[in-house]
Fold:
Amino acid sequence: MNGESRWRALPAGKIAGIVLAVLRCDQRPGDLAGGNGVHRTTVTRWVREVVGPLAARAHAWTGH
Structure:
């Protein structure tokens, strides 16, 4: 395989760009989903998959 899941709707780099647009540019998941041919809930899941591990590590990073 080429490193991508056969179930992945978009390449990993495209998903990363969408997640960054939601987090950094305050774009709505539904707007980005429609423009990329995926469902809003898929974009929301991608964002949660990124934010979850980061939030779990935030405690260690901040020293609190």
